[in-house]
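Hi there, hope your week has been kind to you so far. Please have a think about how the structure follows from the sequence. I've dropped the whole record in just underneath, so have a look:

_____
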Amino acid sequence: MNLELFPLPELSPRHFEERARKRGFRIIAGVDEAGRGPLAGPVVAAAVILPEKYNLPGLTDSKQVSLSDRERLFRLIRIQARAVGVGIVSPAEIDYLNVLQATLKGMALSVQRLRIVPDFLLVDGISAIPLPFFQKTLKKGDALSPSIAAASIVAKVVRDHMMEGYDRRFPGYGFARHKGYGCVQHRESIVRLGPCSLHRRTFRGVREFLEGE
């Protein structure tokens, strides 16, 4: 039920949340993901229900926020949000489903793990989540909706922390530095060491180095 409710001129910072409330929705969750593009690691999605009043200075798209500010906002969101849900999809599932379907699965899981059931979803991107909720998809939504921005911060920080942990389990690949993205250092480590179980085996940059498969 993807409602194309809202026009786009001159938006206030909370335009989409405000319009949803004017339509009678009361529990609005923003949903976003981190990790669609890397060669290694999971996709992590988050759903966040913010209260109508909150104090999150500097909240915006996680890609536009420094590491220290992301960590600060992450702590504040966990304190102030009415509910936070996280969905994680493994590299093996990404290979099996494809990355788009894996992303939608992670988003669905994040919504289902909220301790409060939302009545409206604001979803980053152009694909609706396969759940029976009223929802609005927003391209570049993490820059248009504070609810989505909060979800983007949570997803990014959770995934970064996971990749830092994986760096200790899989030394030599540099996961703590590049978080699994296909930088030169990471590609060189795949050539040198071969892929590990954290790598997405169907992705170009990995599949070429799978001997005997």
User: Anything to note?
Assistant: Residues 15-168 form a domain with the Nucleotidyltransferase; domain 5 fold (CATH 3.30.420.10).
